[in-house]
Amino acid sequence: MSKAKEVLNKEIERRRTFAIISHPDAGKTTLTEKLLLYGGAIHMAGSVKARKTARHATSDWMEIEKQRGISVTSSVMQFNYNDFCINILDTPGHQDFSEDTYRTLVAADSAVMLLDGAKGVETQTIKLFQVCRMRGIPIFTFINKMDRAVKDPFDLMQELEDVLGIRSVPMNWPIGIHGDFKGVYNRQLNQIELFTNDKSHGQAIIHSNKGDVNDPIFKDLLGEPYYSKLIEDIELLDIAGDSFDLNRILKGELTPIFFGSAMTNFGVEPFLEEFLRMSPPPGDRVFDENLMEANSEDFTGFIFKIQANMNPNHRDRLAFMRICSGVFEKGMQVNHSGSGKQVRLAQPQQFLAQEREVVEKAYPGDIVGLFDPGIFRIGDVLSSLSGLEFHGIPSFPPEHFARVSAKDTMKRKQFLKGITQLAEEGAIQIYKEPDIGVEEFIIGAVGILQFDVLEHRLKNEYNVDLKLTSLNLRYARWITEIEGRPNDLNLTSTSRLVKDTKDNYVLLFENEWSIQWALDKNKGLSLRNIS
Ligand code: G4P
Known about the structure:
Elements: H1 3-13, E1 15-22, H2 28-38, H3 47-53, H4 63-68, E2 76-81, E3 84-89, H5 99-104, E4 110-116, H6 123-135, E5 139-144, H7 153-164, E6 167-170, E7 172-175, E8 183-186, E9 191-194, E10 209-212, H8 216-222, H9 224-240, H10 246-250, E11 254-259, H11 268-278, E12 285-287, E13 290-292, E14 300-308, E15 317-325, E16 328-329, E17 333-336, E18 342-344, E19 349-351, E20 356-358, E21 361-362, E22 367-372, E23 381-383, E24 400-406, H12 412-425, E25 429-431, E26 441-445, H13 449-462, E27 466-471, E28 475-481, E29 496-499, E30 505-509, H14 512-521, E31 526-528
Parallel strand pairs: 1-3, 1-4, 4-5, 5-11, 6-11
Antiparallel strand pairs: 2-3, 7-8, 8-9, 9-10, 12-13, 14-15, 14-23, 15-22, 16-21, 17-18, 17-23, 19-20, 24-26, 24-27, 25-26, 28-30, 28-31, 29-30
Helix pairs in contact: 2-3, 8-9, 12-13
Guanosine-5',3'-tetraphosphate binds near residues 30, 93 and 261.
C-alpha cells in the first residue's frame, strides 16, 4: 500500500461525522457543549450557550440572525477526542427549523437522537428520525435530564417502538427516576456508576464513582429498595429485551440507549466513548450509478447546504461540501457537475469548535465551506472524476405555504431572480400554478421563519418589496402514479394542483382529510411526501 493510501485510510478510520437530532429544549446545545468540553475544544462549558444567545459578538452571520439572536442555518463543529476526529453537524431547531435541518442529515454517517426523559419522543424528533430511517444510518439514543423526574425507562423503550418503530437496547440502566437519580448500571461492564452532582453546574469534567454491581457496598450506598429494583429490572431486560447486536445497530434497525444528564455531565463521557467505538467511520457513497469508495484516490464531495451572506460586506454565499472520497487540498481543480466545468477550490474554510479557519487538507467525512460566487446548487458534485452526479438529496415536505409576488410590478425581473436564487439555495420551494404567469408563485417552506428570511433578503439584496399572503395549506404531496390527467383529478375545493421547479406535479392540501379524499376518489393515484 502506498504511503498516501495508508494516511488516507487512517484519517478515514478516525473520523466520525454525525448530527444530533432532537426536539427543542431536549438539551442539544448542552450536550454539544459537553462533548466539546470533553474533547478539550472548549475549556469551560457555557461558551456555546453564550454564543447561542449573543451570537453577534462572535460571528457575522446574517443580519436577521443578529436581530433574533438565533441561528438561521446549520453549522459544523470539528474537534478531536483521543485519536478520533469528530464532526458534529448542527441541526437547527425552534422556529428556525428548515429544509437545511433535514438536508444536513444527508451529510451525516450516523445520528444521535437526544430525548428529554420526561417528554419522550416529540414531534420534531419524529420528523428527523424518519429522514435517518430513510437513509438507513445508525441511530444512537441519549435519554437526557435523568437528574429530574422522568418517564419509566421501560415505557420510553415502548414509546420508541410504538412511535418510531425502532427496537432498542439499553447500554445502561437508570437507578432512581423520580427526581431521585442515583446513577446507572452499565450492562456491558456489569458495573454501577454513581451520580455525583458536583454543584459546578456541569462546568467541569466529572468522573463517576464506579464498581461491580455485586460488590455489597452498593447495596449500602443505594439502599435496599433501589438495589432490589435494579436487580429486578436487569433480569427483566436480560430476559425480555433485545440483545446487543452491532450489525442491527449499524443498519439502523436497533438503537442503543444511554441514560444520562448533559447538564450535570453525568454519562456524557461514557456515552461519547461507546458512541465512538460503535459508530461507523465515513463509508462508501453512491453517486447515482457510481459507487465511490471512501479511500479511493479520486476526490469526490457534494454540496448539501448553501448559506448566503455570512459576511454582509461581500455578497458571497458559502457552499457546504461533504467530502466523500479521496483527499481534499486547498486550491485543487475539480469537475463541477452543475456546470460541467472545472473549478478551483480556493479559500476553503473549516469550522473548528470556536472559529472558522482556512483548511489546507481535509478527508472523507469532513465538511468544507467553499466561497460561492453563485455557481453552486444543492446536490452538486465536485470531483476529480468527470460525469458524476448525485440525486440523493430529496425535497422535504414543506408545512407552510404562501402566495408571493412583487409589490411593484416593475420589479418583476428582480423578484424572479431573487426567489429563484433562494429556491436554489434550498431555503424555499417554488410551485407554479397552471395558467398563472411568472409574476406570481406559491412558495412552500419547512419552517415559517423562511418567509421572514425571504422578505428580508429580497428587500436587502434585490431591492424588491414582497407581497406575501399566507395560504391555509399544510401538506405537499408529490404525485407518483396517476390514471388519467392531473387536471382531471377529483379534489376538495381547497386542494390545489401545482408543479415544482422540476416540472413534477404536486398536490397541496389543507388537511389530512383532503389527502384521504383525493386518494379515495381517484383510482390509481399514489402520493409521496418527499420528492
Ligand atoms: P436545546 O439546544 O435542545 O434547545 O436545549 P438546551 O441545551 O438549550 O437545553 C434546554 C434546557 O434544558 C436548558 O434549561 C438546559 O439547561 C436544560 N437541560 C439540558 N440538559 C439538562 C439535564 O441533563 N438536566 C436538566 N435538569 N436540565 C437540562 P434552561 O432553563 O432553558 O436554560 P439555562 O437557564 O439552564 O441556560
